[in-house]
Amino acid sequence: MAPNRIVALFAPFVALAAGVTATWLTEHVSGLEVSAGQLEAVFIAALTAVLAPAAQWLHGSQKLDRIEAEIERAALDADTRTAELAAEPDPGTDEDYGEYEDEPAGGDDYAAALDETEPIPAGA
Questions:
Q1: Higher confidence at residue 40 or residue 116?
Q2: How far is residue 34 CA from its own chain's centroid?
Q3: pLDDT in tens, 4-33
Q4: Is residue 77 one of the residues assigned to a domain?
Q5: Number of other CB atoms surrounding residue 63 within 10 Å
Q6: Which of 32, 47, 96, 105 has its CA at 20 to 30 Å from residue 64's CA atom?
Q7: What is the dihedral sign for C-alpha 104, 105, 111, 114?
Q8: pTM for the predicted model, two decimal places
């Protein structure tokens, strides 16, 4: 059984036992005169002292599970993308891109035309 399920299952019982134990200890062992309202406050404090860390632990456990699932999903997506890239043809071959590897029409004429243009005035 997963630890988060054990905590979720047993935390209420442990909290109840802690509340009863704290109340009994306060009433019988402390030697103090305590009213019923004060015993109730001791019970609630002990209950909270056990349930709060359990709830925090469960919250963190769920966040960890979500993060691990996202990492696993990202790894699977990366593996899929790597396989897709491996299946694509090499862009350096002439098979698929032969006509595009030549210089554009007017190659040197275009460079010369750039040199002959007038400069653009500042602030225009």
A1: 40
A2: 48
A3: 889 999 999 999 999 999 999 998 888 888
A4: yes
A5: 10
A6: 47
A7: negative
A8: 0.55
DSSP 8-state code for residue 26: I
Q: What is the CA radius of gyration of the chain?
A: 37
- Distance, C-alpha 40 to centroid of its chain: 40
- What's the structural domain count of the chain? 1
In a domain, 55, yes or no: yes
Which of 64, 63, 72, 52 has the alpha carbon at shortest distance from 7? 52
Please give the pLDDT value at position 3: 86
Spell out the alpha helix ranges (H) of 88-99: 94-97
Nearest Cα neighbor of 12 from 57, 39, 48 is: 48
In terms of residue numbers, what domain contains 7?
3-87
Query: Which residues, other chains included, contact 8 with Cβ-Cβ below 8 Å and sequence gap of 6+?
Result: 58
- Going by the DSSP 8-state scheme, the letter that residue 111 receives in this structure is H
